Amino acid sequence: MASDQSRIRNFCIIAHIDHGKSTLADRIIEMTGLLTSREMQAQVLDNMDLERERGITIKAQAVRTVYRAKDGEEYIFNLIDTPGHVDFNYEVSRSLAACDGAILVVDAAQGIEAQTLANVYLALDHDLDVFPVINKIDLPSAEPQRVIEEIEDVIGIEAQDAPLISAKNGIGIEDVLEQIVKKIPAPKGDPGNPLQALIFDCIYDSYKGVIIFCRVMEGTVRKGTVIRMMATGAKEEVVEVGYFGAGQFIPCEELSAGMVGYITASIKNVKDTAVGDTVTDADNPCAEPLPGYKKVLSMVYCGMYPADGAKYPDLRDALEKLQLNDASLYYEPETSAALGFGFRCGFLGLLHLEIIQERLEREYNLDLVTTAPGVVYKVYKTDGEVVELTNPSNLPDPAAIEHMEEPIVSAEIMVTAEYIGPIMELCQERRGRYLGMEYIEGTRALLKYELPLNEIIYDFFDALKSRSRGYASFDYDIKGYEPAKLVKLDILINREEVDALSFIVHADSAYERGRKMCEKLKDEIPRHLFEIPIQAAVGGKIIARETVKAMRKDVLAKCYGGDITRKKKLLEKQKEGKKRMRQVGSVEIPQKAFMSVLKLDDRK
Amino acid sequence: MTALIRETAGRAADCRDRTVTSLFFGGGTPSLADIGQTEELLETVRENYRLSPDAELTIEVNPGTVDRDKLVRLRRAGLNRLSIGLQSADDEILARLGRIHTRRQFLDTYREARRAGFENINVDVMSGLPGQSLSDHLDTLKYVLALEPMPEHISAYSLILEEGTPFFAMAEKGDLELPDEDTERAMYRETDRLLSRAGFRRYEISNYAREGFACRHNCGYWTRRNYLGFGIGAASLFDGIRFSNGPGLERYMADPLGCREEPQVLSTQEQMEEFMFLGLRLTAGVSVSEFERLFGCSMESVYAEVIEKNIGQGLLRFVTCRDGDGREEKRLALTEFGLDVSNYVMAQFLLS
């Protein structure tokens, strides 16, 4: 099989969500003869159930196929699939760094979206050669020529000879394959140099330990090489190297410069194999690590508690297992007066949080109570200390706070002209700072805003979609920290502060949020034998109040011979409902009330 | 009716050595049934079962469905108690409830029943009805209390919306103009006050009787006495086993003795649960010593925590009264407030 560098093509596919990235990947794999269509499970690359359901890629994946081109030569294609969501931007950037070129898939009807642009710019930043493909040309609403012009105007890359395809129906795929050969450069690098390989992903396997996904830039790695991760310092002897078959690992002799493959080395912890780190030969190290390594920081935090307190050890084990495969998941034990023992968990973003939550519930069968997600605030104390606040309950005494800062993102929102008004209004409501607007063609605009991260983690995306009838798309990058007037909003139920319901909010929206929170909780908390005041307070001052009226009647008027079995079921249901409650003082709070803060948008 | 008579005769073997102390002919509108067949059914009971001489034999009667002749024949057939569903003395409200009778028809039925010799009559009334005001309800009660002679027994139900009923669906949509909570509670309180003054005693959540007229049959349900139910979907409790006939009409007609569903053999734990949540419906509550006699362990040993908590919240109380033989006995009963929120209390007596 061909293995010289000139016959290797390392590339990825970039696209906006739903524009057909995974489908095109499937066709490429199918057409290159690796799998027959019967063997193909739809979308080979997205192999987690969740990924398939949500239609997004969460972890990077790679596959190697062989293509016999029209020039008669066989080419090795290494297709590296990139995660498709802003939460995973850093992973995307590392996957791109492992490639030499990229295919840009654009929907023939939708055209360019904010995410398309963000990804293209990211690819161009990594010096990748990008060629466009126009997908879904068989849709009645397809306007390939308009989209081609848009690509040339907006992105500034040549698009006249872009393959017009339908990945779904297998139209035009061969064109794509030929262009991969012609337009994507062969890798460079010298197999004789000291080893320098980029980690773009890793997974944990219970037999092999950590499996490192890497792109070898320089040198060669084989069984027995003692490797060292340059950032983490971890050192191990290589047990196996190989490349990626479809859904399986195929061992081989060695991986040399230009090749994409995997390394196993009895590494027990993914923390040792950080994405973006450089693998080198411990005995003959390269001079410099590859650029671009960043320690991944959690952006969003929340408390996760088992609904059943006795399941705490199960939750701990599950988090431990998930972390084996996901170094960006952070957790540490915490205790809440209201919820008992649980964990403060850190995530890359809200989607990441939701994914972990779903996996814990689905794969590990855990019933969870999740507290309102928050971002990391910086608290500057009067004594000069700076606290990174991940749990609102740990906010220092206000008297000891000099000022606080919150994370800010630079956001780009692409929207059709008619929705510019509503979207600008939304950004304004969310304390956005308008930076500018560019028109793309006559009908679409790219809005640039700076927004506080804590204003977009809850429901910004939903609000954006609903106010633009689904036409707006959105992308953001963390920009940095800025001072802000922040306060801690406390919720008191029956005059007792419920720690798990506290959150940090901008002073100007404290009243509004407090009021909505009280209203929401009033609906969530069932009536008790006594009246329950629900209050929102800032710094001990009550700013909103609602009351759950006392239960006055809970009775079954008739219960004769034929009603008894039914009556018992009714009582059982009532008792079962109580089990899903959390006792705070003398009040029983349903578990879902703790998450109600998430759904305060009144526009729905 | 033919099938029912067949089932009644056919089941007799199940309780050869038992004495029947009450019979309740209800569900649907039994007063519409052909009088000849009703007589035949009662005859079947007498032939096949050992009926106690002072047995309570009740039939449910809807106003306007019986005339003098029918009432006389029912009485002659041995029935000695009537339960008449008045619900409200306001014709407009009756119409809204979809009842076909009027207040006038009720009065006729009641008078004819007295004339036919029924000396134990229950009248059903309802509160919390759509469009009903407090005074509407009080008018109904006063009307019932003004009957000559006054009924021996009154069942006063407050409307409970149950999932799956048309009213429930209407209430969800906001199409039902129900009395507000304060009014509804006032109706409930006033019912107790008014009936007490008239010499009735509330002996169960929704039931009031004059001295000696508590419904023996229904008390059997709450004290878990054995009962056999005949007819479509009819439920039974016999020696710790609950079972019932299937719901299908055709199947029942074809084979009235062969349409029983899977019986449920109650565990000791389930029997304890029932003992508590059924017995607590009675204002007299449950007997502490009877619990111990039935289950071989003290009520405290099973329920100490629940009892203590609910006494602390003013929902339950221990009372001392004299049993049938004049001995003092300790009973656990719901308080006035406990009766209002009885489901809340009863749910805590479930053990699993």
Protein model, in words:
- The complex is a heterodimer of chains A (604) and B (352).
- Chain A is of the alpha+beta class.
- In chain A, strand 6 and strand 7 (209-218) form a beta hairpin.
- Chain B has two domains: 19-221, tm_1862 like domain (pyruvate-formate lyase- activating enzyme), CATH 3.80.30.20; 267-352, Arc Repressor Mutant, subunit A (Orthogonal Bundle).
- Chain B has 15 helices and 13 strands.
- Chain B has helices at 2-10, 35-48, 68-76, 91-96, 103-115, 134-145, 166-173, 181-197, 216-222, 249-254, 268-279, 288-295, 299-312, 336-340, 342-347; strands at residues 19-25, 50-61, 81-87, 121-127, 153-158, 201-204, 207-209, 235-238, 241-244, 264-265, 286-287, 316-322, 328-334.
- In chain B, helix 1 (2-10) packs parallel to helix 2 (35-48) and helix 6 (134-145) runs parallel beside helix 8.
- The longest helix of chain B has 17 residues, at 181-197.
- The model of chain B has no long low-confidence stretch (mean pLDDT 93).
- The chains are: A alpha+beta (604), B alpha/beta (352).
- Chain A binds chain B through residues 529, 551-562, 564-565, 567-568, 570-572, 574-575, 578, and chain B through 27, 157-160, 181, 184-185, 188, 205-206, 218, 221-222, 227, 229, 233-237, 242, 244, 264, 273-274, 277-278, 281, 313, 315, 339-344, 346-348, 350.
